[in-house]
Amino acid sequence: MIMNNIYRLFLLNLQPMFLEEPNVEFFEGKDTEKAEKIISSDKTKLLFDFALSASALRDIDSVLEKTAYFFCKILNCDRSSIFIWDKKKKKLWSKVALGLDETIELEPDKGIVGFVFSQKQPIIINDPYSDHRFNPEIDRKTGYKTKNIIAVPLITYLGNIVGVIEGINKLEGEFDGEDLKFAQILSTYAANSIENALLYSEIKKTQEEIVVRLSIAAEFRDKTTYNHLVRMSIYSYLIAREMGFDEDWCEKLRLAAPMHDIGKLGVPDRILLKPSKLTDEEFKEMQKHTIYGYDILKDSDIDILKMGANIALCHHERYDGKGYPKGLKGEEIPIEARIVALADVVDALLSRRPYKEPFGIDEVVDFVKKESGKHFDPKVVSAFLRIIPQIKKVLEKYGVD
Ligand SMILES: [Fe+2]
Ligand SMILES: [Fe+2]
Fold it and tell me: What range defines the domain where residue 192 resides?
């Protein structure tokens, strides 16, 4: 019943598109009977599937792949490319070219895609080689023969153009007005999903950059490095993934892990930078970086910062209850902090410090095994031991300090 209502709503959304006659170079004209036939066809069901599935995606690559797949299926064409407008570069780029594994960059006013983009008009070309806008260069390079093209601007509900979608080589016959109607409906849904995904990735990038830069500020003070933050956050991510946490949670952990020592901002220089051994009193003051970090982050509504607060507070707790600041034991310690505790220590062991040479990976493995159930959660330890080859790859890529 709910499904039926959603479906009806979807059809209502389609109707204005059918009523509006697009201004195109090739168009068969509107026919009410035909429009009704289209509504009841499988293509409408596919459009419905597309609209539902694309709106649930946040990752731009997945949105592009899904869009290209449904575009090909609905229009029954051989391949599809999506060109996205890069405002900074002032170029159109394409990541998805189903059946053609090549990334292409285009000027916004050249070729068929450029024409569709700059004019904000859809187009059907059934004899591309006689069209002056068609660039046969790609065909020449790939040995592919373009026979016909449909290209539609990707325009959101609010009228923003985000790019162009193109279908090439209809499998039977030529592209026609009916194809165009479906292409336009799909393109509106696609444009909104693409715009949302682009905005989402921008927000994520901004968040990530702020977190890392803030964490560097803290780390700068005691001379640990940017690479330490990168490596330990990747180890944390890999361990969590191996333990079976979902991708979203693992990604959150990757972003939150660099904040573990953010509370060092509150530790006086005379203690933080003291070259000799700390007195008991000074060590107690140093331990407070966990509480300072928690205080900095705890009131945030942002999931990553909330997770960061737990990590900052509990990354020096030990599984056996002998850690600080609270002496929490076992599962009392939030799992994110149990994972980061191991990742942080592992990276410190693998790095050079003024008082020690870097450990080899085998020495680290021995140490971690010995500390299983003492310093570290045995479940985290066994996940870590299973991903040693991936840890080695991270080390190869980022080196040791
Ligand atoms: Fe710490
Ligand atoms: Fe650290």
Answer: 2-198
